[in-house]
Amino acid sequence: MERLILSEDEIVRICQRLGKEIDESIAKEEKAAVVLGVMNGALPFLYELVKHIQHPVLLDTIKVRSYEGTESTGEVLVEKLPDYDLEGKDVILVEDIIDTGVTMHFLKEYIQKNFHPRTLKVCILIKRNNLRMKFDEKADFTGLETDEQKYIVGFGFDYRGLFRNVPYIFVPSIKDIKSWEPFFAHEKND
Question: For position 130, what pLDDT does the model report?
Answer without folding.
Answer: 80
